[in-house]
Amino acid sequence: MNHVAIDLGASGGTVFLGRMTASSFTIEEVHRFDNRPVERNGRYVWDLDGLVDHIADGLDAAADHADGLDTVGIDTWGLDFGLLSDGEPLRDPISYRDPESTAAREELFETIGKRRLFEATGITNWNTPNTLWQLYTVAQREPELLERAERLLMMPQLLSLLLGGWPTGEVTVASTTQMVDPDSRDWATDLLEELSLPADLLPSLAEPGERLGVVDERFAPDPDASPELLAPASHDTAAAVAGLPLSDDAAFLNTGSWFILGVERDEPVRTDAAFEYSLSNELGANGTVRVLKNVNGFFLLEECRTTWLEAGEPVDYDHLLSAARQAPPRTALIDPDAEDFSIEGPMPDQIRAYCRRTDQPVPTGRGDIVRCLLDSLVTKTALVLDQLAAAIGESPDRIALGGGGARNDLFCRLLSDATGRPVTAGPVEATAVGNLLTQAIAVDTLSDLEAGRQLVEASFDPTTYEPADSDGWDRAKERMRELPVD
């Protein structure tokens, strides 16, 4: 069958065509486009009309490479949502990167308490602007908007609706909201009542594989044979983890705008240690739970590339990584999660300012800045892996790596050295692979997720990196612990 995976990240979108049987799997990129919050009326928002146009172009491109399309599934980042009335968005969704989107965060914490939030939802993410913070801010600052709203949909389901689907929720992306009970895999309505937030806005939650209707003839390449819209594992991390050849002894690391490091388990982990280390429990495909922590990731590098591109400087990865290899290691480190780093202002300047503030050598050239970022990202990841191991009471033996970092040889080598563990990199497009697998399971091409992962192992050739140089990384982790985040 021919399946289309629409994979939207916070910096770009890609459309893939997957051809799958029970014993074969091929995947082909057919369309790629940029995606970044746009500034409108003083707020950073997602351009819904533009995204739908890009998706329609992607469906046309997929149709050019296939004899008919059978199913379509959309995955996106978590956190962000749209409010609807009469089936139409009241406005473009506000980006979680918007400085005003979580203005009432501290008020929320004072009202309910962090421990209560963790007990109710299994989510911490105190530095990640999740849906609950955003909705609470809307309720406090724009109550008239909530009064007009009739439904709240997360980004994947909102885009599916605009393509012609039904307004149904899906558990993997809903679990990023800090509004879902990971045991019941349903909305934490008691928590919402405590916060005077309207639970009646929320859609019913389906597991991956839910049918959402068919693509409207306005967007279908062949209006006489519109493909079926499915809800895959619609959170990009859930899809990526589903698409990795993961075993019980491995941690996963999905690399994109955010790094998400964790392990897959059958039950949520809501221990004191998990709370202390700010671990979260997000829901995965096949009834699983992902015990994880978010780290601000390649967003920092992409923002640097945007600044350099605007200045007319080379920004291709080969050029930047070659320069980074020549730079001395671990000269300066930043905490990627520090509040110093935002969507506003040139990122290279923000990095230099942080290094000055923390009395470190200030990186000057692009190679120095990229090396600072890579060293910092792998050091923070290694530190979080130590915390994860302490919280779950066992230490993962290796790391299964998906996302854009899997094609970055320097990053993978540094990560293996910093963590002291083998890193198996690939498939690069793990998110699209997982999206396609959950579609194939929904239409009974594959029996279950385990069969899908076996098919991935047989169909792709990942690269394994072994630790080679451990010198200096323990000291780097000590330095990272001392760096400020606010």
Task: Walk me through this protein's architecture.
- The chain has 486 residues and is of the alpha+beta class.
- The protein has two domains: 233 residues, ATPase, nucleotide binding domain (Nucleotidyltransferase, domain 5), CATH 3.30.420; 208 residues, ATPase, nucleotide binding domain (Nucleotidyltransferase, domain 5), CATH 3.30.420.40.
- The chain has 18 helices and 22 strands.
- The chain has a seven-stranded mixed sheet with strand order 18-19-17-16-20-21-22, sandwiched between helices. Strands 3-2-1-6-15-14 form a six-stranded mixed sheet.
- β4 and β5 form a beta hairpin.
- α14 crosses α15, α14 packs across α18 and α16 packs across α17.
- 53% of the residues are buried.
First-to-last CA distance: 50 Å
Mean pLDDT, rounded to whole units? Answer: 95
So how many helices? 18
CATH level-4 homologous superfamily of the largest domain: ATPase, nucleotide binding domain
Give the biggest sheet: 7 strands, mixed
Number of strands: 22
| Helix percentage range | 25-40%
Rg over alpha carbons: 21 Å
CATH architecture descriptor text of the largest domain: 2-Layer Sandwich
Strand order of the largest sheet: 18-19-17-16-20-21-22
State the CATH class of the largest domain.
Alpha Beta
CATH fold node name of the largest domain: Nucleotidyltransferase, domain 5
User: Structural class, judged by helices and strands?
Assistant: alpha+beta
Range of strand content: 15-25%
The number of domains is: 2
**Poorly predicted residue ranges:** none
Anisotropy-based shape = globular
